[in-house]
């Protein structure tokens, strides 16, 4: 079929120069694929270089502390990826003697590795004939073949994987998978693609039918909840503060934060003052509370919008085991808190 020939020819002319395309090392490919989940290439690239420099082998990653891994991951978001990455590295290093599984079926058994990532590693590292199906692939195939299947439906992946398998040249699965993903990322983009220069503009059914902007079909809506975080930044006479690790499952698990007052809505000074004095810091003598109003923001995650306020609370006593401003920066924080610290807005 002409589809794969045209696609691969386009790819060889237009592909980006990406470091993980210059290797068949499953460790580096796995690392890149985990990093690029929910992340743009431009954002993920510096992290890839930093991780491969700090942890050149899977054993190096396995031997690191989780805190160090989370610190290097800081700002990349979806931190469960980093925790799973670390646990999987330990499993490969300790239980598999540092050797990656060499098949799609076995790769699927790794923590944090789903069908897409397993297919990517299996095809790119071992040239296994297995198709990758991500958002780019859904988009390219649904438009080219005018497929109206709702991609939010779990059965859709099986349908599109079967089609991709049929189109895939059996002697070059790796390059086909790279090509179709790259085509979706660079040419067949989600909004307003330039179809006039597309190599498929004489055969794409969606273009012929004027349906390019209607495909792929995705009806499932993400329900977004609102949460209200008030971070209380304790400060003693020495300038030291208090932080805590988030141990509950959920967002930012095992990252650090300031003491948190979570409320049902945005609250004022009186509510924060009352809670700080009576509930959160009853053993300290509070001599001043300031609202760092300039730092109030809404931090948008995929399923949650976090309305964040920072409050500086000065106390009379010395904080036992307090953290000084320099040491503070060495802990892994959610990026929204780290940026606040970095700008030295603790001084409000």
From TrEMBL:
Please list the residue ranges annotated as the HhH-GPD domain. Answer: 35-186
Catalytic activity, EC: 3.2.2.31
Enzyme class (EC, first level): hydrolase
Please name the GO terms that the record assigns under molecular function. Answer: 4 iron, 4 sulfur cluster binding; 8-oxo-7,8-dihydroguanine DNA N-glycosylase activity; adenine/guanine mispair binding; metal ion binding; oxidized purine DNA binding; purine-specific mismatch base pair DNA N-glycosylase activity
Q: Spell out the InterPro entries in the cross-references.
A: A/G_AdeGlyc_MutY, DNA_glycosylase, HhH-GPD_domain, HhH_base_excis_C, HhH_motif, MIG/MutY, MutY_C, NUDIX_hydrolase-like_dom_sf
The record ties this protein, via SUPFAM superfamilies, to: DNA-glycosylase, Nudix
Q: What's an example GO BP annotation here? A: mismatch repair
Q: Which cofactor does it need?
A: [4Fe-4S] cluster
**Cofactor comment in the record?**
Binds 1 [4Fe-4S] cluster.
- Which catalytic reaction applies to this protein? Hydrolyzes free adenine bases from 7,8-dihydro-8-oxoguanine:adenine mismatched double-stranded DNA, leaving an apurinic site
Pfam hit, one:
HhH-GPD
Q: What are the protein's UniProt keywords?
A: 4Fe-4S, DNA damage, DNA repair, Glycosidase, Hydrolase, Iron, Iron-sulfur, Metal-binding
Q: Which family does it belong to?
A: Belongs to the Nth/MutY family.
* The protein's role, per its UniProt record: Adenine glycosylase active on G-A mispairs. MutY also corrects error-prone DNA synthesis past GO lesions which are due to the oxidatively damaged form of guanine: 7,8-dihydro-8-oxoguanine (8-oxo-dGTP).
Annotated protein name in UniProt:
Adenine DNA glycosylase
């Amino acid at each position: 079929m002409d589809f794969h020939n045209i696609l691969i020819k386009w790819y060889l002319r237009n592909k980006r120069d990406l470091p993980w395309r210059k290797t068949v090392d499953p460790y580096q490919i796995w690392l890149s694929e985990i990093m690029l989940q929910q992340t743009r290439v431009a954002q993920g690239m510096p992290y890839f270089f930093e991780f491969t420099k700090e942890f050149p082998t899977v054993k190096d990653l396995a031997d690191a502390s989780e805190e160090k891994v989370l610190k290097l991951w800081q700002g990349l978001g979806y931190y469960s990826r980093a925790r799973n990455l670390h646990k999987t590295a330990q499993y490969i290093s300790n239980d598999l003697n540092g050797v990656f599984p060499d098949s799609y079926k076995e790769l699927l058994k790794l923590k944090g590795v789903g069908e897409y990532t397993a297919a990517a590693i299996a095809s790119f590292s071992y040239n296994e004939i297995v198709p990758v199906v991500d958002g780019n692939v859904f988009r390219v195939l649904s438009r080219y073949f005018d497929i109206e299947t709702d991609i939010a439906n779990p059965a859709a992946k099986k349908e599109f994987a079967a089609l991709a398998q049929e189109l895939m040249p059996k002697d070059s699965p790796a390059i086909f998978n790279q090509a179709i993903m790259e085509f979706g990322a660079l040419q067949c983009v989600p909004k307003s693609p330039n179809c006039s220069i597309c190599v498929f503009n004489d055969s794409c059914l969606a273009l012929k039918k004027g349906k390019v902007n209607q495909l792929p079909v995705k009806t499932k809506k993400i329900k977004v909840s609102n949460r209200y975080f008030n971070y209380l930044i304790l400060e003693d006479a020495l300038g030291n503060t208090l932080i805590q690790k988030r141990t509950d499952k959920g967002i930012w698990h095992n990252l650090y934060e300031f003491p948190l007052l979570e409320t049902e809505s945005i609250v004022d000074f009186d509510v924060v003052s009352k809670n700080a004095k009576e509930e959160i810091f009853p053993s300290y003598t509070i001599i001043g509370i300031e609202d760092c109003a300039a730092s109030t923001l809404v931090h948008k995650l995929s399923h949650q919008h976090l309305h964040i306020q920072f409050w500086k609370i000065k106390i009379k006593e010395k904080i036992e085991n307090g953290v000084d401003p320099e040491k503070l920066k060495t802990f892994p924080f959610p990026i929204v808190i780290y940026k606040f610290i970095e700008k030295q807005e603790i001084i409000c």
